[in-house]
């Protein structure tokens, strides 16, 4: 979807909302909170409870880097009392709509504002990967903040305060979630500690696990797509360098994920002797909770690296 097309949709939707918002003579007193991603949505829903109606825009499991907003989803943004986003341009197709909603008086809560953001290191080698638009949009830092449970605990606490300022009373639910996420963080650390330090090496689909690595003591060896977006391009030279690293570091597992080209991953695995393990880095589990999502994610990594 082009920038001009998105701008047209945003303007059209806001105009329709202004003209027809109360055409049926009915209004609702129920407050509205709109959330961009399902993983954020799981925490927001728990914190908000019955204090407001929560709407999650992205379908569960979708790769946010490639997702595009519809006119209906843009309208939901403009009608919300509070919009909760990940930030750092993870929601690339919503950027203009979010700016328009903010200009229209909608309160925007950006989770990344409450996290110690990891800056994206530039390539130091002579050959760099394609500098496409998505990489420029992530210039402010790594947006994959949700793989650090302690960081998300801080987000939960800040969100509780922000909702209160917006007139949405969530009681002590944000504090309860905060404490539980810190306990989860401790559990995850203990799980990783069962691994020998020399085995805590990660090769990923794209650069999506830096926060998890920093929080739980892993070393990032490399990525199949050397960029923060799964939409980035990769060169033959970069793939050759990655294969050399995998062999040199004796990495036995490549962790693939949504958006990673299967044929490329399988080819690297065949040439290096590594095993491919697919991680659900954007998919909520059946119970729909963040706690289970993180537990299963870390458990899958630990299990693969220990076998």
Short synopsis of the structure:
The protein is α/β, with parallel strands linked by helices.
Structural class: alpha/beta
Strand line-up in the sheet with most strands: 2-1-3-4
Note the total helix count: 11
What name is given to the CATH topology of the largest domain? Rossmann fold
The global form is: globular
CATH architecture title of the largest domain: 3-Layer(aba) Sandwich
Q: How far apart, in Å, are the first and last alpha carbons?
A: 43 Å
Low-pLDDT regions? 1-27, 122-138
Describe this entry's structure for a reader.
This protein has two domains: 30-115 and 135-181, Nitrogenase molybdenum iron protein domain (Rossmann fold, 3-Layer(aba) Sandwich); 190-306, Nitrogenase molybdenum iron protein domain (Rossmann fold, 3-Layer(aba) Sandwich). With 307 residues, the protein is an alpha/beta fold. The protein has helices at 3-20, 38-48, 71-79, 95-103, 133-137, 149-165, 173-192, 210-216, 236-248, 262-272, 290-306, and strands at residues 32-35, 53-56, 82-85, 107-110, 201-206, 219-225, 253-256, 275-278. The protein is built from eleven helices and eight strands. The relative contact order is 0.13. The protein has a four-stranded parallel beta sheet with strand order 2-1-3-4, sandwiched between helices. The chain has a two-stranded parallel ribbon with strand order 5-6. Strands 7-8 form a two-stranded parallel sheet. Residues 1-27 and 122-138 have low confidence and may be disordered. Helix 6 (149-165) packs antiparallel against helix 7.
């Amino acid at each position: 979807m082009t920038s001009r097309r998105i701008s047209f949709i945003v303007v059209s939707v806001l105009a329709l909302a202004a003209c027809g918002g109360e055409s049926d003579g009915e209004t609702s007193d129920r407050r509205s909170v709109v959330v961009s991603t399902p993983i954020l949505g799981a925490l927001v829903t728990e914190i908000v409870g019955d204090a407001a109606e929560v709407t999650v825009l992205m379908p569960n499991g979708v790769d946010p880097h490639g997702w595009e907003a519809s006119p209906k989803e843009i309208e939901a943004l403009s009608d919300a009392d509070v919009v909760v986003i990940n930030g750092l341009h993870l929601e690339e197709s919503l950027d203009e709509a979010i700016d328009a909603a903010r200009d229209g008086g909608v309160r925007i809560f950006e989770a990344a504002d409450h996290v110690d953001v990891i800056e994206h290191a530039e390539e130091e080698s002579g050959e760099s990967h394609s500098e496409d638009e998505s990489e420029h949009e992530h210039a402010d830092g790594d947006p994959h903040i949700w793989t650090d449970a302690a960081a998300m605990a801080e987000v939960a606490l800040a969100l509780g305060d922000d909702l209160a300022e917006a007139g949405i009373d969530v009681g002590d639910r944000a504090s309860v979630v905060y404490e539980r996420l810190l306990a989860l963080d401790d559990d995850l650390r203990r799980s990783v500690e069962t691994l020998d330090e020399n085995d805590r090496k990660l090769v990923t689909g794209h650069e999506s696990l830096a926060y998890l690595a920093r929080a739980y003591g892993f070393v990032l060896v490399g990525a199949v797509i050397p960029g923060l977006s799964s939409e980035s391009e990769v060169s033959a030279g970069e793939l050759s360098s990655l294969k050399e690293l995998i062999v040199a570091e004796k990495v036995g597992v490549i962790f693939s994920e949504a958006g990673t080209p299967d044929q490329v991953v399988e080819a690297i695995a065949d040439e290096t002797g590594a095993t491919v393990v697919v991680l659900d880095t954007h998919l909520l589990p059946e119970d729909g909770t963040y706690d289970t999502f993180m537990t299963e994610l870390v458990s899958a990594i630990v299990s693969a690296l220990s076998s």
